[in-house]
Write a structure and sequence with these properties.
mainly alpha, three-stranded antiparallel β-sheet, 7 helices, 3 strands, 48% helix
């Protein structure tokens, strides 16, 4: 039952369940462990965010950007030793590869991948704790792709840069982890 909860609800999720094999016990544990690591990260994020001055209700884009950058610097300092794979561990990377391959090989897969790659020029050098490149547009994340990945809290987002799946802190505009080539 946990695997179905992970997939979400609704017609789209039901259609995807028919395409994807059930999660194995190892994959289910990978998701549980991933969500625990994310929960720990979010505790840190919120603790550091609470130290910053509150943004006014009518904050200007400049104030929002300064706040993002300040939060990013705090997180970068607190996670100075962070390395790729600490949040998206190898078992989660393997799960993401398998599930993305299944969705992108489906009937709408070619269109979805073209949509993802259309806004996705890729970045050769990507590091954990880097600011998400300002010059790189946020790639489209088709709902079918999001449905097969573990759900994220509102502060976090999945994005693609090149063939990599990126886990991004949306409030700090930071790359907090990423995979290697997950797109088929």
């Amino acid at each position: 039952m946990r695997a179905r909860k992970f997939l979400g609800h609704g017609v789209l999720a039901a259609a995807i369940v028919g395409v994807l094999p059930e999660l194995t016990a190892i994959e289910t544990q990978a998701v549980v462990d991933f969500q625990a690591r994310l929960a720990d990260y979010l505790v840190l994020h919120r603790k550091l965010e609470a130290t910053l001055p509150k943004l006014p209700k009518q904050a200007t884009p400049e104030q929002v950007d300064a706040n993002q950058r300040d939060l990013g610097k705090l997180i970068q300092t607190a996670r100075a030793g962070a390395k790729r794979g600490q949040l998206l561990a190898p078992d989660m990377e393997a799960l993401a590869k398998r599930r993305l391959a299944a969705v992108l090989s489906g009937p709408d897969g070619k269109i979805m991948k073209a949509s993802i790659m259309d806004e996705n020029p890729g970045v050769p050098d990507l590091n954990v704790n880097d600011r998400y490149p300002d010059a790189v547009p946020l790639s489209t994340m088709p709902p079918q792709v999001l449905e097969v990945l573990p759900k994220l809290e509102e502060d976090l987002e999945y994005r693609f840069i090149g063939q990599r799946l990126v886990l991004m802190d949306a409030h700090a505009h930071l790359v907090i982890d990423f995979t290697d080539d997950v797109l088929p």
